[in-house]
């Protein structure tokens, strides 16, 4: 196919008009920064705006995620974050893992494992996935033989094409040896595409498209995050999974177990939350503060003002021994905890002793 001219944009381009850019330079596609992890996990402030602009004028669009993973586990978490940000949207171009910055401090083998883990996670969620980095980084920092099944978007600011086999060449940004580096008065990264992604993606039913209808929206299957309910609560309250439909898509079948606890915290009495804190339900310190959110202060005040004491039963404990340790009686502990048989207690259970 004839090469197509496109751009890639993020918050660095500010309030640029995509329609004006298309009219000024005959832009045929745009790849938008959706999110990243190089400053904590975040959503790019201009992603929604640029995506909406592209859709409004019918401009094919892709997305990318600026990575920062140091392990396969972190790469999978970044993929889950990316998927939560782009959930429910359609992309005529691939979604990419942007591999640069501190990620290059990883060894060649580890970085290759990281890239594969991220791309696998997104691919299994129903997306056409690619890798972005510079020509030299593809040569020196990853084992590119292991990355051949993912499409390559290669940066090389030169009048000569990259050595690395590629479907998109980012030929200019701050330095541009082929064309004016500015569009709409702003410096913009510029690209040539050599592959008909839109046809392939729609035909395969990827990136939010239906294979049977070509352009009907479907919900991509999103990998469900691993971890305990407490861990997912904490990550949710840190806004890692977004809100509304994005949160539902990111948490998958685990959405209800997390959302039910959030709703419970909102409606429960202070005393009920205090009892649950003492039982260890919400973790400690910063985790507890984050999960309880706006309820934390009133719960903490009640804890500080109260004199309740709790004890976690250990193997070999007896209720009489616990009662003696805390200066109380077996009957008193049994009544506080609804224990019907004082001779039957279970190691690991937390009981109130005062």
From TrEMBL:
EC id: 3.2.1.17
BP GO terms, sorted: carbohydrate catabolic process; cell wall macromolecule catabolic process; peptidoglycan catabolic process
One matching Pfam family: Glyco_hydro_25
GO MF annotation list: lysozyme activity
PROSITE patterns the record matches: GLYCOSYL_HYDROL_F25_2 (PS51904), LYSM (PS51782)
Stretches assigned to the LysM domain: 309-353
Domain of life: Bacteria
Enzyme class per UniProt: hydrolase
Keyword Hydrolase applies: yes
Alphabetically ordered keywords of this record: Glycosidase, Hydrolase
InterPro entries per UniProt: Cpl_7_lyso_C, GH, Glyco_hydro_25, LysM, LysM_dom_sf
Family: Belongs to the glycosyl hydrolase 25 family.
UniProt-recorded name of the protein: Autolytic lysozyme
Species in which this protein is naturally found: [Ruminococcus] torques
The gene coding this protein: lyc
């Amino acid at each position: 196919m004839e090469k197509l001219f496109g751009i890639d944009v993020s918050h660095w381009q500010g309030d640029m008009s995509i329609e004006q850019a298309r009219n000024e330079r005959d832009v045929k596609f745009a790849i938008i920064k959706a999110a990243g992890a190089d400053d904590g996990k975040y959503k790019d402030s201009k992603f929604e705006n640029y995506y909406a602009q592209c859709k409004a004028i019918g401009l094919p669009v892709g997305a990318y995620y600026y990575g920062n993973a140091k392990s396969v586990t972190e790469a999978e978490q970044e993929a889950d974050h990316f998927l939560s940000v782009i959930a429910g949207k359609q992309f005529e171009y691939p979604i990419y893992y942007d591999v640069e910055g501190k990620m290059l401090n990883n060894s060649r083998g580890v970085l290759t494992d990281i890239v594969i883990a991220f791309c696998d996670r997104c691919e299994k969620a129903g997306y056409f996935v690619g890798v972005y980095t510079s020509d030299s980084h593809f040569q020196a920092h990853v084992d590119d033989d292991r990355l051949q099944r993912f499409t390559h978007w290669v940066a090389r600011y030169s009048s000569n094409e990259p050595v690395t086999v590629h479907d998109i060449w980012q030929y200019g940004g701050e330095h541009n040896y082929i064309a004016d580096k500015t569009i709409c008065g702003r410096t913009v990264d510029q690209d040539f595409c050599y592959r008909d992604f839109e046809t392939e993606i729609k035909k395969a039913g990827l990136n939010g498209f239906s294979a049977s209808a070509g352009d009907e929206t479907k919900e991509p299957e999103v990998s469900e995050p691993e971890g305990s309910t407490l861990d997912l609560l904490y990550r949710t309250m840190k806004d890692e999974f977004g809100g509304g439909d994005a949160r539902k898509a990111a948490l998958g079948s685990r959405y209800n177990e997390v959302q039910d606890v959030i709703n419970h915290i909102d409606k429960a009495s202070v005393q009920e939350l205090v009892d649950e804190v003492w039982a260890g339900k919400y973790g400690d310190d910063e985790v507890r503060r984050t999960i309880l959110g706006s309820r934390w202060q009133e719960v903490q005040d009640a804890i500080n003002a109260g004199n309740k004491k709790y004890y976690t039963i250990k193997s070999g404990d007896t209720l009489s021994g616990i009662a003696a340790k805390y200066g109380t009686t077996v009957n008193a502990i049994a009544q506080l905890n609804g224990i019907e048989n004082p001779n039957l207690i279970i190691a690991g259970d937390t009981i109130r002793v005062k």
